[in-house]
Amino acid sequence: MSYGSTDVLHGIDLDIRRGEIFALLGPNGAGKTTTVEILEGFRQRSAGEVRVLGTDPAHGDDAWRGRIGLVLQAWRDHRRWRVAELLTHFATYYPDPREPATLLDLVGLGAQADQVVDRLSGGQRRRLDVALAIVGRPELLFLDEPTTGFDPEARRDFHALVERLAREEGVTVLLTTHDLAEAERLADRIAMLVNGRIRACGTPAELARRAAAQAEVRWTASDGTARRERTEDPSQLVWELHRDAGGPVADLEVRRPTLEDAYLHMVHRDDPAGGGTPDVERPAA
Ligand code: ADP
Prior knowledge:
Layout: E1 2-3, E2 6-7, E3 21-25, H1 32-40, H2 62-65, E4 68-71, H3 83-91, H4 100-106, H5 122-134, E5 140-144, H6 152-169, E6 172-177, H7 180-186, E7 189-194, E8 197-202, H8 204-211, E9 215-220, E10 226-231, H9 234-245, E11 250-255, H10 259-270
Parallel strand pairs: 3-6, 3-7, 4-5, 5-6
Antiparallel strand pairs: 1-2, 7-8, 9-10, 9-11
Helix pairs in contact: 8-10
The protein binds adenosine-5'-diphosphate.
Adenosine-5'-diphosphate is lined by residues 3, 8, 26, 28-34.
């Protein structure tokens, strides 16, 4: 993909499987939105080959569009509608829609059915976005930074909903997020996109292992000093510590490399000067 003479995506090669929750993760400007917009059929690619549900998105028709659900970042229409009315209206666009009342319960908005959209909280609004996106029973759901602004409880509920859609109904989910914990919690596989290139793709555990093979063990020694050691075999070290202490080891902690380690490693490898700002706190657009 180029904008004018500037290439912003370079030879992205990616397969997303049916029923998979797949996360695109990367710093601001990496090309996540551009990628997703091409897949959604909203942006014409400059070159290359794309198939989404067997169709080139550049030529997707209404029937194809009806198999796809979108949760976009910003959504500011329909403020004066009541929640259930809006959903019932959207349901008429699809051949086999979900029943609106059941759907509101599914997304945890049963109590807000008669509320005006404008009066929903941010988290409730996002759940309504999801309800609108899945009312037509999509096979594929695009979620663009879906939980920005959620409190921890709303986030947990939302994650449970996405998992349920994928695991129980076989919906394929493509998620873009700057929330590493969210990607780690939800995604079967993650592609890390940096400067328009896929730097790594794999399960969260695979990516974490690629960043660092060693675990870090921390404990408090018998003289009260805090100690830490890196090791490939933390179980051996813990066994030795326990043996030497003749009993429990104080404040013992084993820290495996995390997805965050992998992410920062990839981003900084691409930018040796360290000038890049990992997009971990970007507010919603
Ligand atoms: P992300 O979603 O990962 O933050 P984007 O896909 O929005 O990244 O942007 C990728 C790159 O493309 C950035 O360098 C951005 O400035 C550039 N870009 C995005 N949209 C346009 C556009 N309409 N015209 C020109 N450049 C654009």
